[in-house]
Amino acid sequence: MELGPTASPIVIISLIVTCLLLHESWRWAGLFLGRNLSIESPVFRWVQLISTALIAALVSRMIFFPAGALADVPIGARLSALAVGVTAFFLTRRNLAVGVLSATGALLALDAWSDQFASAARIFLAFAFSTS
Amino acid sequence: MQNEKRSADPDSSRGEGGGIPAPAIVDLASVPPVSRSARRQALAHGFLHSLFCIPAVVLFGTSLGFGALARDADATLGQALLLAGILNALPAQVLFVDEVSRGATLLAAGFAVSLTAIRLLPMTVAIVPYFRGDPASPWVKVLAVHFVAVTPWLEALRQIPPLNPSLRLPRFIGLGAGFSMVMISGSLVGYQLSTVLPPTASAALLFSLPVYFGLALLKAVRVQADVAAIVAGAVLGPLLHLVVPEFDLLGAGLIGGTLAWLLVEWKR
Questions:
Q1: Which of A91, A106, B42, B263 is most solvent-facing, going by the fewest CB within 10 Å?
Q2: Which residues pair with B21 in a beta bridge?
Q3: What's the pLDDT score for residue B23?
Q4: Shortest CA distance to B23 belongs to which of B38, B34, B10?
């Protein structure tokens, strides 16, 4: 399919229907399955732990196998920045804002630093080869 | 902050005030009735909270990336915002636009997106029981679950359990609608800014999202089993991604969550 100004109303309507049937239906199924569940039941705890583990897996996948611009940042920088954020988070008695901002700041700093390191290495190598 | 104070009010003054009393709740005898104005306040409180909290900043930042991606894929602004509104889950939006820009058919893109939405099923099951006994019609709940996405889900899981059961659904709808608005405005701004944003800034925005998700999970930890589920999921996610990339998240969730749950049951 093609998006853009030329897309016909039929394409847009079928897009809406497809999204409702294939995406929203999972939420409807969750509502149906969860409607008679008690928050004290062990099954509820089980489902909650499954969703917790699932989100943790999503987090770790986004950091180990990122998409887009983040993939250009080296894995070492990503993991170090994460470590900085988690440490700051626990040092400030689990403050979300401090954790997120320090991790992001650390990533920006490490990325800038690794760029400088890389160009310094390149200059050094060029120099070493030119003299040999 | 003033808002925080107002929302605490209905709990202490339930049953009185000018509001029309909520219909009697038959199946949950322990639930104290709250006035309709208290429910409206819970909705407004959730909405305002979601506009001005740190997760909103993170969500806004990451939806800039979606807006930029949508423009790259030749979608019009209207189509990008329509997708954002109807899917209301950033991973699905990004995947859909990505598939379409690679020339996939609507059905192929739809099925790929459907796979990312399987995770919404256990998340919805984990939140819906908090709405039990709410006097709202079932159709309101059908609309409310549209707001189940990672950011509102994490915030709701921290905020709604201590509330009066009749205030949980309005608070969740307020949170969900607010976060949805933040995400849609972020997409709009990202669409317009797409050519200006430097790659380092996009990388930082993309990084802040998993960091926020992870820290919010750690903040919601109450018992040992929660920690076990987080560790198991974080270890299994990338491992399963290498083996069965289509079912990595679902597999890691099922195995990790079950292991953590067995730990609880075993301790009992």
A1: A91
A2: B35
A3: 40
A4: B34
Please give the residue that has the higher pLDDT: either B173 or A131: B173
**Tokens 């409310």 correspond to what residue?**
B144
ipTM over 0.85: no
pLDDT single digits (tens) B124-161? 999 999 998 888 888 999 999 999 998 999 899 889 99
Q: Which residues of A touch B200 (CB under 8 A)?
A: 69, 108, 111-112
Compute CA distances B110 → A3, A20, B105, B107, B249, whole Å: 14, 10, 8, 5, 18
Q: Provide the shortest C-alpha distance from residue B175 to chain A (in Å).
A: 17
d(CA B92, CA B109): 10
β-pair partners for B35: B21
Nearest Cα neighbor of B92 from B111, B72, B64, B68 is B111
B39, B166 contact by CB (below 8 A): yes
Residues B208-226: b if buried by 16+ CB within 10 A, e if exposed: bbbbbbbbbbbebeeeebb
- pTM, full prediction: 0.75
